[in-house]
């Protein structure tokens, strides 16, 4: 029987236990998928820790993966046995060797795209595309700040924004990450442990501030991000790797007519046609060289707890993938 990494209670990485699971036959509208690779995200860590109580327990975390279709359920016409697919599953369950998923959650992988690369980037890649289009319509004339520019989504945002022609400022924690960020499209890099981010942003922009800040860090950077904005600027808080943001007093926004949004990817790709379009644009950007992500950090499925620990300790850079044998 295939195994899955199951959690019966929230807690540390040790709560993820390998257990045999019974897959069963795919129901109407479902696919039976033999997975080749599974992506790991900070969202998974929030679920495991109990910060997000969105997974009924016992349950299998994980939102994204890639693999081969083993069987299709009644009514499925978009896929057939043997197709290579990637997916984002809103109902979790990715930390497994095999699984059932709704066919509508899957997209067919183009020839030439590696399963391991894509599996760890579906959430990141679609998130980056949505953040630059639906959440804030980024233009070549804009100057933007990306907090954690060497992170998974941060890298993609910097590369995509640079390709678009915008001026990209990125924050990183070390000189090694600074080199990575410059190579990835950052026009200006700020070492946040050594430099005052707000002061440097104002210096770079001639005192104006930036049109938009993309901030996945949360508690440690949120209010500093607000201070980096130009009048009528927009803060996109799309993660909280440092912890939840403390309550916001609305007059703080009124001081410069600022706006803040806390987007969740599922709300922007709930429509099947829109999801397929966003995924196609992401795949095309990988294939044409617009995006050149670093190779993912790879762990075995049973080592997912160590993957979580390394992510929380900021030992990983970019995508993290579980290899399924």
TrEMBL record:
Catalytic activity: 2 a quinone + NADPH + H(+) = 2 a 1,4-benzosemiquinone + NADP(+)
Domain Enoyl reductase (ER): 11-322
Molecular function GO labels: mRNA 3'-UTR AU-rich region binding; NADPH binding; quinone reductase (NADPH) activity
Cellular component GO terms, alphabetical: cytosol
SUPFAM superfamilies: GroES-like, NAD(P)-binding Rossmann-fold domains
Listed transmembrane segments: none
EC number: 1.6.5.5
Protein name: NADPH:quinone reductase
Source organism per UniProt: Alloalcanivorax marinus
């Amino acid at each position: 029987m295939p195994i899955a990494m199951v959690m019966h209670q929230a807690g540390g990485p040790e709560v993820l236990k390998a257990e045999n699971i019974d897959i069963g036959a795919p129901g109407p509208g479902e696919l039976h998928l033999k997975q080749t690779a599974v992506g790991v995200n900070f969202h998974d860590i929030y679920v495991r820790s109990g910060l997000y109580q969105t997974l009924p327990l016992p349950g299998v975390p994980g939102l994204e993966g890639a693999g081969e279709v083993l069987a299709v359920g009644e009514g499925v016409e978009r896929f057939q046995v043997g197709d290579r697919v990637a997916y984002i599953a809103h109902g979790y369950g990715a930390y497994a060797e095999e699984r059932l998923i709704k066919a509508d959650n899957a997209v067919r992988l183009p020839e030439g795209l590696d399963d391991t690369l894509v599996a760890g980037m579906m959430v990141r890649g679609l998130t980056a595309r949505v953040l630059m289009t639906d959440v804030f319509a980024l233009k070549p004339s804009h100057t933007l700040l990306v907090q954690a520019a060497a992170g998974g989504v941060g890298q993609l945002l910097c590369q995509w924004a640079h390709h678009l022609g915008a001026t990209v400022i990125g924050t990183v924690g070390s000189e090694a990450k600074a080199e990575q960020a410059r190579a990835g499209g950052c026009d200006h890099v700020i070492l946040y442990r050594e430099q005052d981010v707000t002061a440097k942003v104002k210096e770079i922009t001639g005192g104006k501030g930036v049109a938009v800040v993309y901030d996945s860090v949360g508690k440690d950077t949120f209010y500093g991000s607000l201070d980096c904005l130009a009048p009528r600027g927009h803060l996109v808080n799309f993660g909280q790797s440092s912890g939840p943001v403390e309550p916001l007093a609305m007059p703080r926004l009124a001081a410069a007519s600022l706006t803040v949004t806390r987007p969740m990817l599922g709300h922007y790709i709930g429509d099947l046609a829109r999801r397929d379009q966003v995924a196609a644009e992401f795949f095309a950007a990988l294939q044409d060289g617009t995006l050149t992500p670093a190779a993912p950090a790879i762990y075995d499925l049973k080592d997912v707890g160590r993957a979580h620990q390394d992510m929380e300790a900021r030992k990983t850079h970019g995508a993290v993938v579980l290899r399924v044998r």
